[in-house]
Specification:
- The chain is built from 15 helices and 34 strands.
- By secondary structure, it is an alpha/beta fold.
- The chain has an eight-stranded mixed sheet, sandwiched between helices. A four-stranded parallel sheet has the order 20-24-27-30, with helices on one face. It has a four-stranded parallel sheet with strand order 23-25-28-33.
- The radius of gyration is 25 Å and the shape is globular.
Length: 582
Amino acid sequence: MECGQEHLFETWPAPGTGDDDKKRFMSQAMVCDSGYPGGIASYVTNAKKLLSDSKEGKNPFEGWTPSVPDGIVVDYASDGHLKLEQKGMQEIGSAAFVLVAGGLGERLGYSGIKVELPCERATDSSYLQLYVHSILALQSRAAGEMPAHRSAKDVGIPLAIMTSDDTHAKTLDLLDRNDYFGAKKEQITLIKQEKVPCLINNDAHLALAKDDAYKLQTKPHGHGDVHALLHTSGLLKKWHTAGKKWIVFFQDTNSLVFRVVPGALGVSKEKGFQFNSLCVPRKAKEAIGAITELTHTDGRKMTVNVEYNQLDPLLRATINEDGDVNNDKGASPFPGNINQLIVSLDEYKTQLENTGGQIEEFVNPKYADDTKTKFKSPTRLECMMQDYPKALGADAKVGFTVFDNWVGYSPVKNSPADGVGKFKGNNPTHTATSGEMEVYGCGAKLLELAGASVAKPVDFKANDIVVPSGPRVVLHPSFACTFDELKGKVGKGGVNLKSPTSALVVEGSGITLESLELDGALVIKACAGANVTVKGLTVTNKGWTYKPVTDGNEIDNLRGFVVEKHETKEIVFAKPGNYTVS
């Protein structure tokens, strides 16, 4: 009532009537109150301010001038990159990981949770399985490099997963059904994000559900809630006590991110970054946010993500009348933000203790008419995790690390229908079709950079989009965590993937591919402690066919193809020992 929400109770009957419904309403209100820093009172106050700014058309960048911030553009597989990877691997045992996985796959056209989707159909590994196995592989390398006076338990690398009402139970069930994919149960923590109330007007009146006068209408608040949840859950304090120094944030469907984590962590260490945004090269006016340093007329500075539709007018109004244009290298000088982040735990923990995890919010109401007094539908406040640096002081070291798309960025976020529109506009489709082929393409290019001979890709059409398709290479995280490690396991000139339809799956840290001729499908797996040298092996068989399909199951239709495995050479070493395959 003190927040001006009298309308919520106008239809309530006299005491003693409908009390169960009233208590149900208050229970939900209490959840909303406890789930927002400062409670509903703060939410309403913040909403009134943001709605007023929105109505007046206030420019959030008034007085700010952009420039290119501090950062490193990494040339993958170069000597500089190998040094950064080495530096990052020295820090990896002091890292914790945070997966933001609060969304369902509805936008993709998938009825389940996105982290349960297979990254590729060669092995059918889900995204969550890939992520957990990647962390366990990094953990094993960290344990192997530890000083003798410390025990392996000191380098257990924790994973926190931010879920929502939509995904929490399904994520827990996925972990339970798969025995946590080999991780210890206590190694993975789920932190659930609550929704926030919707707003019906500029006075920040809360919305009731259309079909229930005793229920608030709520919507997700955005992935920026991850910061408050890490603080209130006590995880930051726990990790800090355990000696962790870094937190790596990553998204739910980017299969390639762990390929660049060691190098990016090395950049954070070398540059002393409190906040490091992993980025990709960006074309001018490309629909992706840009990492930008902003300097205010009053002397304040901050390095933040600026959305692409805000960057062009900001540049035109300040330093470049042509706006967002490419440089002489054919790219924007402002790198593209992909929302994979690395923060320094010490400063991060202190900052969140001061702010409670509150992240700068925004509101995006859809007005019914030019008076801007009524909304077409209820709106809500939102926040984004990449906006954390907006609350930091000018002396905070914030920067970026750029890797090429092929090695660090393959999001799967668009439905097949949306993908066709992207494809026709000559834009990345970011579909399950492209995502799968990019997994294989990355694996093949890594082998090629390490000295292998790899057949050139050919065009492959599925779901009315065309993607390059070369040998189907899946390198399990256990095989190699860094490029330096990988190139030491591939014989230069001795590995030849002769056909673009060949398939190669390698799993196991003890495998070395010294010499191999492959025209077909080969799967080779080795347990921990099995050291396997592939030397002089020739495999020729019928292999696998990737067949376009439109009437398959839900997962097949997302990709637009099925895998027909006609003939496979499978070699498995289930016991420790030294082996040669020839």
